[in-house]
Design goal:
alpha/beta; seven-stranded mixed beta sheet; single chain; about 300 residues; globular; five-stranded mixed beta sheet; 14 strands; disordered N terminus
Length: about 300
């Protein structure tokens, strides 16, 4: 069963905003950037869209993700308050517009954009967005990553050795986690939604199994002192990620059992396999029945 042929049409407005790249300025007029210190010279910026990571130091400013295009001015102002120096490098954790919408803005300023090769491919092409039932136009040249990698690469900036590690077929097919090895900070991108059910872009080859594997990869890199920046939700630590990983694993087991018993999509949703988690995880982007539908489509495709 292919989710591309079965659009999910009853998503919340918030998730549709994540899936689409076209936004009106008025939607962001009252959005403020909240700056959260993470570790020495590293900050998390929260606004509209995915969480941004910022590294400030003698080598210049390094940014991870950049929310929507309409947020670019506010992001620039927030970074200026931290350092006063323009960004030099930027990493995209994946291709979605709430993480790459300001690529063109920063690219025009000479910022070097780095990402997995599948991010450049996805941004370069028109794509059908089944969750919004519409097409995304190809991004302009100035918004595309100019440095890409297949498995991993390193940046040596601001006194740290920063590893960009591809985790395959998790949230999308182009996810990267960003590990500040000395500062002991990890930006997980949208492989980690802290406190809410995670959107899995099955049309971009994302999968629940890949999300669990990505969580395990991060946990192998983390210790009790590691600060983890999730793609969405508050700043986290290893214990938070373990709770998230265990939730994903339990849901995979329960829905898998129902599928192996021959239950169809309607029957799986009616069985409420996520009931024990809904009060904690089901109040964000995705209500439980929508999330179950996404997982069912992933596990039966």
């Amino acid at each position: 069963m292919n989710i591309l042929k079965r659009p999910i049409r009853f998503l919340s407005v918030s998730l549709i905003l994540v899936a689409t790249a076209v936004q009106g300025d008025s939607k962001f007029d009252n959005v403020a950037i909240n700056t959260i210190p993470v570790n020495d010279g590293i900050y998390m910026l929260m606004g509209a869209g995915g969480n941004i990571g910022v590294s400030i130091g003698d080598d210049g400013t390094f940014i991870i993700d950049n929310q929507y295009a309409e947020m670019s001015g506010k992001i620039t102002a927030a970074i200026k308050k931290l350092s006063g120096t323009p960004a030099k490098f930027m990493a995209n954790t994946h291709w979605h517009g709430d993480h790459t919408g300001s690529n063109e803005h920063f690219g025009k300023q000479g910022v070097v954009i780095v990402a997995h090769e599948n991010v450049r491919r996805s941004l370069s092409e028109s794509k059908f967005l089944p969750l919004a039932n519409k097409h995304k136009h190809a991004s302009p040249k100035g918004a595309l990553p100019v440095l890409t990698f297949q498995n991993e690469m390193s940046l040596h900036l601001n006194g740290d050795d920063i590893r960009l590690v591809h985790v395959a077929n998790a949230h999308t097919d182009g996810d990267a986690i960003i590990h500040f090895t000395k500062a002991n900070v990890i930006h997980a991108g949208d492989t980690f939604f802290n406190g809410l059910y995670p959107y899995i872009d099955v049309a971009s080859n994302g999968s629940l199994a890949g999300m669990i594997a990505a969580s395990n990869t991060i946990l192998q890199l983390a210790d009790e002192e590691t600060k983890i920046i999730p793609g969405h939700g508050p700043l986290a630590n290893k214990s938070d990620l373990i709770v998230y990983r265990d939730m994903l694993t339990t849901v995979e087991q329960k829905i898998g059992t129902l599928i192996r018993a021959g239950k169809n999509e309607t029957e799986v949703i009616a069985a409420k396999p996520t009931a024990e988690f809904d009060s904690q995880w089901g109040k964000g982007f995705l209500p439980a029945d929508v999330w179950i539908k996404i997982i069912y489509n992933d596990m039966t495709k």
